[in-house]
Specification:
Number of domains of chain A: 1
Mean pLDDT of chain B: 84
Order of helices and strands of chain A: EEHHEEHH
Largest sheet of chain A: 4 strands, antiparallel
Strand order of the largest sheet of chain B: 2-1-3
Number of helices of chain A: 4
Low-confidence stretches of chain B: 13-23
CATH class of chain B: Alpha Beta
CATH architecture of chain B: 2-Layer Sandwich
Largest sheet of chain B: 3 strands, antiparallel
Number of helices of chain B: 3
Shape of chain A: globular
Helix content of chain A: 40-55%
Radius of gyration of chain B: 13 Å
Largest interface: A-B, 35 and 26 residues
Mean pLDDT of chain A: 89
Distance between the termini of chain A: 19 Å
Number of strands of chain B: 3
Oligomer: heterodimer
Distance between the termini of chain B: 28 Å
Chain lengths: 157, 102
């Protein structure tokens, strides 16, 4: 997948059939991070921390619903993906780039959580098995797609 | 934080702009971003740029603080604005919290 053209806030990507299939399969995993995973504070010292936590969870639930709605639209709108020469052209607006980055990162971080939060720096390697291997793949694929989007934003800015 | 190699330009040391009237009597809340081994460095930098409107050097400076020191204090705000920023950062799946400034 690579950026081939930017026109204002519209980004046009070339994406191979295999990449498109992979991207759409990975996106079906969204959302993966449980809302309760997000904590507004690490200490109980802040007053109104309970209310703040509820506000955070409500805001994130709204955001997740909206991301899911846009995701379903993307997966079903044929006009956004045009087939050409055995590959596809994917058109994304700047706001769509942002939500796609959020969605991909949710899947990446959610996969990491499912994998048991591995951290090689702390001597906690990934322990793969038949059950979690697909999440390892999803985590890495999401990282690759994220870097493609970030590079595209960087190149054009 | 998952590493991506990029040249980094540190920002000039500058006094943080005060947002709103933050007199000594007004309690403040620190918005803190914590390190994790999964979020990409380039992604974290991008999120800081989008959420705070920072130029890239300043965003990278804070991203590297998170990466090297385990956390970075991103801003000090009123409770409502701190909540807003934490919501924004967490919607990008960053590990961000708000703590009362002692």
């Amino acid at each position: 997948m690579k950026l081939i053209q930017r026109d204002g806030e519209s980004f046009l990507f070339h994406i191979s059939k295999r990449e498109k299939g992979l991207l759409f399969e990975v996106l079906k995993l969204y959302p993966l991070i449980p809302i309760a995973h997000h904590r507004v504070s690490q200490t109980a010292a802040a007053p109104r921390v309970t209310e703040s936590q509820k506000l955070l969870e409500s805001a994130l639930a709204d955001r997740t619903r909206e991301n899911k709605r846009q995701l379903l639209a993307m997966l079903t709108q044929e006009a956004r993906l045009q087939e050409t020469d055995g590959a596809h052209r994917l058109t994304l607006s700047l706001p769509q780039m942002e939500w796609l980055l959020q969605v991909l990162n949710d899947i990446r971080v959610g996969s990491w959580l499912i994998l048991g939060e591995p951290d090689e720096k702390k001597g906690k390697p990934i322990e793969l098995n038949d059950e979690n291997a697909r999440y390892y793949a999803a985590m890495e694929f999401c990282g690759l797609f994220q870097m493609t989007l970030l590079d595209a934003l960087q190149q054009s800015s | 934080m998952a590493e991506t190699v990029e040249p980094v330009v540190l920002p000039d040391i500058e006094k943080e702009e005060q947002t709103g009237d933050q007199g000594e009597l007004e309690p403040g809340y620190l918005v803190i971003c914590w390190d994790d081994p999964v979020n990409l460095m380039a992604y974290v930098t991008h999120v800081f740029q989008v959420v705070f409107g920072w130029p890239k050097p300043k965003a990278e400076f804070h991203m590297l603080q998170v990466h090297n020191q385990g956390k970075s204090v991103l801003t000090r705000e009123s409770m409502e604005r701190a909540e807003h920023y934490v919501h924004q950062l967490q919607s990008y799946s960053l590990h961000a919290t708000m703590e009362r400034d002692a």
